[in-house]
Write a structure and sequence with these properties.
Oligomer: homodimer
Number of helices of chain A: 14
Largest interface: A-B, 51 and 52 residues
Strand order of the largest sheet of chain A: 3-2-1-4-12-11-5
Strand content of chain A: 15-25%
Order of helices and strands of chain A: EHEHEHHEHEEEHEHEHEHHHHEEHH
Helix content of chain A: 40-55%
Structural class of chain A: alpha/beta
Chain lengths: ~350, ~350
């Protein structure tokens, strides 16, 4: 297993990216290609007192760096020699089994569609974060790649999310829910009503119906299907309330000597909860729909988060995700064309 | 000040509704009309050992009861003798200054449009809950009444929310934000981009631009403008994460003797936070856009929540909300027609 790492992408590149990759190389025994400016990468190693590249780690030089300021649509054209573009090319050429990058989300979305390309028949790539629930985790598809969608996109999201949950996360018969403003099937926009009908008839999907925001948070579904706009609002709202409560707890426990003692008494629980909420463990979001495994790490990733994203990339690279989806493509196509003729009649 | 109370609406009617109304009558010195089955209401009083109707409290008999099972669109026609319909008629005839009801949301939305009617020129009524933020509260408009919207609806929501924040809640120059999937003005659907442009030019509104889900939760804006679908997902997601954290805290503090002691040490802070999060204090959501003040209380309201909704109804009834909005109607109309001609050219 060889993982390509965009060593220059993200707020803390290259230092934290390189460090995270080396941890993963040691801990998971995966080979690593660090893509980026050789001198910058070597400087990180030198600063950390590493004189030789560890076994299984190589560097592929790329002169340019895509930043958060680069325009998503033109970053690839503007910076053809960037670590992002080279990483995608190496992945496309089969020089590695998966790519991990913390770069500009819009830029990598656009460039991966052009370089790595989507699985044949897949209409749109989707960004799929893993979100903690009280008893586990669930996937959110999409969370921002596609602000406007069609029934077909949403149907495909359901297939993509369900397949990833099953193949990469090992969830047995994953429950797929459609994020909506009510549980009844008559709820939501016309687009959602149509999508609900499509999903109801998808035998390949364990569709549990509409899920509301609170049900989604509380773990009713393993896969939450939604458009990128609503998914983004959902994701950020969860983050916001998390911060609200986290800050409240912190200031509560710091109030005075007695509450500081209280914090000590709850130390174990607080630690376990913090770990559960730590995005660094599950912070990689696969870019589903692409023909090769791409894992997008948080822009603010530190070494531990990069290690986490690589850890997530391994099962994704091991399963034949694209092959599985290709095998379902005829089913998806038939369902959508049936639905379209229904609308026409 | 006289408040009309739909004594039969909600899961805990009439008992909790009547009790809440009597608390408000005593605490705030407002007169009350309890609308509903006389025998049921008198039975509540009898059970509570009250032999005579308190001063300022009267009963208006209505035979029928609208339940959560009644269809929103036809409840009014199906149950013309219901407490909901009579309450709205009394409000419309000026027999009271405001109406508080915990009945079926869809039903009261539909019926109020027909009986009380919207302020002339207002396109849609909106349900506007108050949501806690770290340092205060903000309004969410809309949270479910309008799943599909136009630029004009959203513009009007901004005016309605801003006016309510100013007149009823006393917020000075309320900050109005548009819920979106990014802060930049190029973000979101075409509808949101158009709305952003409209709001930017609204001198009457303190428009602070797009707000993301996390900013909204953390109190960036006093008024969050969104469509009813996204607003509903947002509201329920906040509720869900709140429950997630609340349950976590509870089980943490109950784990063992030491954590129980910790809970005692933090007692004051926990109590203050619980109070802040208690929907019963601010659980009334005005139905903005109607020509008279209607306050929708939570379906599961207990007496304290009904008291809270009445408390909120008082400043709403005192300010001339409909008059204020009518005064801004020409501005809104001009803005929307300008925008439309821009789109056409």
């Amino acid at each position: 297993m060889k993982i390509i790492i965009d060593a220059m992408g993200g707020d803390n590149a290259p230092r934290e990216i390189v460090r995270g990759a080396l941890i993963a190389n040691k801990e998971f025994g995966v080979d690593i290609i660090l893509v980026g400016r050789v001198e910058d990468i070597l400087q990180v190693l030198k600063d950390d007192g590493i004189t030789d590249l560890p076994k299984g780690v190589e560097i592929a030089h790329a002169e340019q760096v895509v930043t958060m300021e680069d325009k998503a649509a033109t970053a690839m054209k503007d910076k053809p020699e960037s670590s992002m573009v080279l990483s995608l090319k190496l992945l496309n050429e089969g020089k590695g089994d998966a790519l991990v990058t913390a770069t500009n989300t819009g830029a990598v979305l656009a460039a991966s569609t052009l370089i790595v390309k989507r699985i044949k028949g897949v209409r749109r790539g989707a960004l799929v974060p893993t979100m903690p629930t009280p008893k586990g985790y669930c996937l959110l598809i999409d969370c921002g790649a596609n602000v406007e969608v069609t029934e077909e996109y949403l149907l495909q999201f359901a297939f993509l999310g369900s397949a990833y949950s099953k193949l990469a996360l090992g969830v047995d018969n994953p429950r797929v829910g459609l994020l909506n403003n009510g549980a009844e099937e008559t709820k939501g926009t016309q687009l959602l009503k149509n999508t609900h009908n499509l999903l109801k008839n998808a035998k390949e999907i364990n569709f549990i119906g509409n899920v509301e925001g609170n049900d989604a948070v509380l773990g009713t579904a393993d896969v939450i299907v939604t458009d990128g706009f609503t998914g983004n609002v959902y994701l950020k709202t969860v983050e916001g309330v998390g911060k609200f409560f986290g800050d409240m707890l912190k200031s509560m426990f710091k109030r005075n000597l007695l509450t500081k003692i209280a914090a000590l008494l709850c130390y174990k629980d607080i630690k376990a909860f913090k770990a559960k909420m730590d995005y660094r463990e599950t912070g990689g979001a696969p870019l589903l729909g692409m023909s090769k495994p791409i894992m997008k790490a948080h822009g603010g990733s530190d070494a531990w988060a990069i290690r986490g994203a690589i850890k997530q990339a391994i099962p994704y690279a091991k399963c034949d995700f694209a092959g599985y989806i290709s095998g379902q493509m005829e089913t998806m196509k038939a369902m959508t064309s049936n639905a379209q003729s229904e609308v026409q009649t």
